[in-house]
Amino acid sequence: MWNSSRSASNCSESADFQYVLFPVVYSSVFVLGLAGNLFVLGYFLRTKSATVPANVLLVNLATIDLLFVLTLPFRIAYHALRNDWIFGEALCKITGCLFFANLYGSSLFLACICLERYVAVVHPLRHLHFRKLRYRVGAALVVWAVLLAAILYLALRGPLTQPFADGRTACLENFSSSSWKGRISSVSIFAAVVGFLLPLLLIGVCYPLIACQLLVAPGMQPGSRVVRRKALRTVLVVLGVFLVCFVPYHVVQLVHTLGRVGALGGCSLIRATYVARRVTMALTSFNACLDPLVYYFAAERFQWQPNWKRICCLKKLQRPVWLQVLSAHTGSSAAENTMPSTTD
């Protein structure tokens, strides 16, 4: 989550490739994530299915992705300026907190979706009870409450901007050793346990249980089999998002945090993990582009492809009446001219 810091050992890090990597990756994520999540939210609003119990968690996931995507232009400018934050402390806290909320809120919402699919497949009778709207809304409110508590702790305990030695202003990096040993390490470890390890454990348990239930029930009705296979694909997609976007970053982040607080390694470890965190942090942003795949598999009656027949530019163009009459007259004349003679 965090970049370089001013530790007690005065470790210096360098990763000049980040000034190109982040603007390129974040620009791609901004375009794809904005289009994908706006399409999803627009679909839910247009079909009035945003409050359907099965879609409540998906709407929250799309919302948190969209909020994160809207902060990316600021991060693009920051890295293009070689990590110089020119937008002030308030915007640094807003963009940083939304990055934090997306990173761990996405994990928690994805875990909730997997848990719901597990209950639907393995405990279908119990699932009928938990399909009620209030349970989905309650789960979403719990996730937002956890995120809000962590964000407030992070934002109110001190500034998130720090000056570099050359006069540039850092945002979400260059923290002092005391900050790392205080609020930064506390938030990082809490978020890693609650927002990553627990969801990953839950997803890792749900997937094999759903697969086993699908395999040991060969006599199920065709409709039930379709539902269970859809649930299995949903959990598989969620697991893939975790493995690609979240696992590399959190492994590196945990090692880096332990190095910063002096519990593991030294300057060589901090320098190595700093470089690795540039790449893995860029990977985490792709979850805003990959989450629409979850919507496709998990949403109730979600149709990813629009009805192109209804788009005006692809309709068969209706010719004017005068052109139709002229064409008909021309066709009739041509037919008469080519008709074989029947006279002797």
Automatic annotation (TrEMBL):
<dbReference type="GO" id="GO:0016020">
    <property type="term" value="C:membrane"/>
</dbReference>
<feature type="transmembrane region" description="Helical">
    <location>
        <begin position="57"/>
        <end position="78"/>
    </location>
</feature>
<keyword id="KW-0472">Membrane</keyword>
<dbReference type="Pfam" id="PF00001">
    <property type="entry name" value="7tm_1"/>
</dbReference>
<dbReference type="GO" id="GO:0004930">
    <property type="term" value="F:G protein-coupled receptor activity"/>
</dbReference>
<comment type="similarity">
    <text>Belongs to the G-protein coupled receptor 1 family.</text>
</comment>
<keyword id="KW-0675">Receptor</keyword>
<dbReference type="InterPro" id="IPR000276">
    <property type="entry name" value="GPCR_Rhodpsn"/>
</dbReference>
<dbReference type="InterPro" id="IPR047160">
    <property type="entry name" value="GP183-like"/>
</dbReference>
<keyword id="KW-1133">Transmembrane helix</keyword>
<keyword id="KW-0297">G-protein coupled receptor</keyword>
<feature type="transmembrane region" description="Helical">
    <location>
        <begin position="187"/>
        <end position="210"/>
    </location>
</feature>
<dbReference type="GO" id="GO:0008142">
    <property type="term" value="F:oxysterol binding"/>
</dbReference>
<keyword id="KW-1015">Disulfide bond</keyword>
<keyword id="KW-0812">Transmembrane</keyword>
<feature type="transmembrane region" description="Helical">
    <location>
        <begin position="20"/>
        <end position="45"/>
    </location>
</feature>
<feature type="domain" description="G-protein coupled receptors family 1 profile">
    <location>
        <begin position="36"/>
        <end position="295"/>
    </location>
</feature>
<keyword id="KW-0807">Transducer</keyword>
<dbReference type="InterPro" id="IPR017452">
    <property type="entry name" value="GPCR_Rhodpsn_7TM"/>
</dbReference>
<feature type="transmembrane region" description="Helical">
    <location>
        <begin position="98"/>
        <end position="116"/>
    </location>
</feature>
<feature type="transmembrane region" description="Helical">
    <location>
        <begin position="231"/>
        <end position="251"/>
    </location>
</feature>
<feature type="transmembrane region" description="Helical">
    <location>
        <begin position="137"/>
        <end position="156"/>
    </location>
</feature>
<protein>
    <submittedName>
        <fullName>Lysophosphatidic acid receptor 6-like</fullName>
    </submittedName>
</protein>
